[in-house]
Amino acid sequence: MTRTLPQRLVDALPDAIGGRLRAPRYRYTTAEIPPPAPRLDAEVRLYIGPVNFAGQGHAWARAAERLPGVAAHASQFRAPGMPIFPADTVVPVNVYRFSRRWQRREFEAVARHYTHVLLEAARPLFGPLFDDDPIAEVAALRERGIQVGLISHGSDLRDPDRHRAIDEWSPFADGQWDREPEYRRQTALHRALLRATDAPLFVSTPELLLDWSPSTLLPIIVEQQRWATDAPVLAGPVPRVVHVPSSAYVKGTPLIEPTMRALHDEGLVDYRQVQGVPFAEMPALIAASDIVLEQFRTGTYSVAAVEALAAGRLVVVHLHEQVRQAVRDASGLEIPIVSATPATLEGVLRDIVARPDHYRALAAQGPAFAAAVHDGRLSAAALAEFLGRA
């Protein structure tokens, strides 16, 4: 990142002054600067950051602590309006971007007191301390004796050309997505980082195993008890169907809305598309549903699908066979998810309505699957070799 002379001058000022001299949207106060990463009392000390998408950085930190002699800390930068998930340290985005005091102090704390680092989504851990260059950041950490690994959450690595070639429903299929250039830049940067550092790569969902080899599946984690419910499923005359898209385009919402509205108007289902629900209210929303429609473009399943499985709901997803096989290989289990594309969704839902007992039995497998694959045990096992605990 190239800084102008005025910006460099402001950067050099103490936080108490520089934080107030910036444009209003970039200001921060010294009270917002969190303390440095703590010194952990363990032989292996793991630092994870800086994005914590869907709370996964924090969840993986807790999973790593299942291994003997391991303690972990998860850090996240957060901008106003971003979803709130658990994290050990939350860094306001303006502090992350502009506070040289925080950047230097955090780097020094990690370099002195930690043994391992997992860098998420090819984003710098310490803001622009190393000129926004994660390659330079990894080199600096390694110079201090830190072992560094990388984590991909999805869009930071998924190759648009590969995905378009194997899936007609791909978000990259028609070349009309306005965010495609941004994702191409992200994936190019991530690949450059992987080539330059040769760091081990962990991927959060199985389809990403196709995007870089070698890589290791690091299963997403869901707090099982939070989603557990005794609410019956497919017990009423009209199934309650919910779709909660975090990104309407990526989830394929425009592709399924005409079908769902028609089935709703027909009275076959009670369909609701829901957005903007606080995370704390989501378990009740999912428990009140029978069927959860997750995504219909990427071919994989995400945190939201696992949450619905943990709640014993029937989950419908556009799912690639490669994803099913990767989960079989990792766990020996079948994913209890109903596969559908935008083209087959209507037929699938009509079959669910016609055969509720069959699908009720499938939904009943969800909690056990979610617990076996996504409660943190497999994630800890995936990290064991990197952390020297295999």
Shape: globular
Strand order of the largest sheet: 3-2-1-4-5-6-7
N→C terminal distance:
39 Å
| Secondary-structure content class | alpha/beta
% residues in beta strands: 5-15%
Give the count of structural domains: 2
Care to count the β-strands? 12
What is the fold-level CATH name, i.e. the topology of the largest domain? Answer: Rossmann fold
Q: Describe the main β-sheet briefly.
A: 7 strands, parallel
User: Can you identify the CATH class of the largest domain?
Assistant: Alpha Beta
List keywords for this structure.
390 residues; alpha/beta; Rossmann fold; 2 domains; seven-stranded parallel sheet; 18 helices; globular
In words, what does this structure look like?
By secondary structure, this protein is an alpha/beta fold. It has 2 domains: 223 residues, Rossmann fold (3-Layer(aba) Sandwich); 151 residues, Rossmann fold (3-Layer(aba) Sandwich). It is 42% helix and 13% strand. It has 18 helices and 12 strands. The strands form 2 sheets. A 7-stranded parallel beta sheet has the order 3-2-1-4-5-6-7. Strands 9-8-10-11-12 form a 5-stranded parallel beta sheet, with helices on both faces. Helix 6 runs parallel beside helix 8 and helix 13 packs across helix 17.
